[in-house]
Amino acid sequence: MKIILGKSIFKGIAIGKIAIYKKDDYVVKREHVNDPEEEIKRFEAAKDKAIDDLSKLRDKAFKEVGEDGVAILEIHQIMLEDEDYNDSIKNIITNESVNAEYAVATTGDNFAEMFSAMDDDYMKARALDVKDISERLVKVLLGHTDSGITGDDPVIVVADDLGPSETVQMDRDKVLSFVTRYGSKNSHTAILARTMNIPALIDIDYTEDMDGVLAIVDGAEGKLIVEPDAETILTYREKLNEELKSRDMLKELKNKETVTKSGRKINLYANIGGIKDLASVLQNDAEGIGLFRSEFLYLAGSDYPTEDEQFQAYKTVAQNMAGKKVIIRTLDIGADKQIDYFNLDHEDNPAMGFRAIRICLERPEIFKTQLRALYRAGMHGNLAIMYPMITSLEEVRKIKEIAANVKEELREQGIPFKEDMEEGIMIETPAAAIISDLLAKEVDFFSIGTNDLTQYTLAIDRQNEKLDPFYNAHHTAILRMIKMVVDNAHKEGKWAGICGELGADTTLTEEFVKMGVDELSVSPSFVLPIRKIVRNMD
């Protein structure tokens, strides 16, 4: 028996055989070609197929894991169409009279080296992306595919690293756990593991001879136990059975209120990426939807969604939730969520750049279309609107001005709409938190987005694994900021909730309740565990 220590991404126990994720081996050779033009045609055909494959993969990601599985795929599609990247490949083919595979591989290495040398962490991360798309193109040209996971039995998937695209391609019924040598607790793949509700570890130094060997993943302790003895297997089977019984016991909390023994009521809502997540919301008995990410409508298409397309989506959610509150966040793209038809300029630091409400205020025609759809859909259920990435009073007042114009247009056109929908803002920048006393006078509610609030406050890119030792979501500054925002909301008679990842941190649930947080919005699978904690509080 061998025990390998790593870092936990998601708690839980998995018992099964290890399957080392195998990528297809290939060698790219430099070959002389007599007709560079024909070789360029080969490259263009391979690129079209790669883009088509990514599009299909994106659709699969929407169905299975929501928005989190889509952002990276969007980036890859955009990079495949990048003019500089394509020109470099074509120039190498033409000037050196070489095969497309060699030109793609060379360009991929050159661009990856260029990105890796940059000081900006976001751009450094693009080195991995350009390698990924280059490998995808080369495999298409060679007619190769990843062998991935084979066999019919569920397995513990072990790999050096797993990109979100690789994770999404797997059959979820065959995956017991993810275990990787590299990675970050805050990476896209880590978030996907939590979304899929399976135990996951990183920093595991495995060896190739473990392939096919029985193992145990202990997500709570961050351990991979290879070739466990009979006693250890028995112990962990009992723990796994207890875990399953605990899940069954949680089901008994369905249709119960999320209220403390002393009568303090907490609104326990769910975060979702689209209509497809409604079944999970209802299955886990969420009391409403605290974050509906509307950008999925934009990410899913090749052009701006029309007013009627958006109206039908919002209407469907409102009707299916049958009077329960549904808070829809307005368009939040930019940073790592890029959409090609928006034609956004390249930015050195996109997380701090042109994104979310800034795009809506600078391109009011897009914003007005969404607001018209939202106000119309408000007639069909208990909808509320939430605006992201607010930093100033001026932004809120500009939003109100645009909203008033939209309502006036609907009145003049005789189109029915909800006049008095709740409208709130996300508190996810330190600026918004600090002036939350002033902002509370302007809006109906606050929802604290702890993911961005944490990285902006600590000046840490949460996607950068090198910074994991410094990333502390429980930092005193974050908790004080949350308390300040809640207090400022209450002074003006407004409610305040949390919709970021921290809301699902069960070690903080009691503290949030004591702080006076009115609402927690979490991934659907966390609803019942948090309800249990709240109901056991005095």
Short account of what is shown:
With 538 residues, this protein is of the alpha/beta class. The chain contains 20 helices and 16 strands.
- Helical content stands at 40-55%
Summed up, the helix count is: 20
Query: How many beta strands in the DSSP annotation?
Result: 16
* Silhouette: globular
Largest beta sheet: strand ordering: 1-8-7-3-4-5-6-2
Please report which band the strand proportion falls in: under 5%, 5-15%, 15-25%, 25-35%, 35-45% or over 45%. 5-15%
Rg, rounded, reads 25 Å
Spatial gap, N to C terminus = 44 Å
Enumerate the spans where pLDDT stays under 50 for 5 or more consecutive residues: none
Explain this structure to me?
This protein is an alpha/beta fold and 538 residues long. It has 20 helices and 16 strands. α7 links the parallel β5 and β6. The chain is globular, with a radius of gyration of 25 Å.
Keywords:
538 residues; alpha/beta; 8-stranded mixed sheet; globular
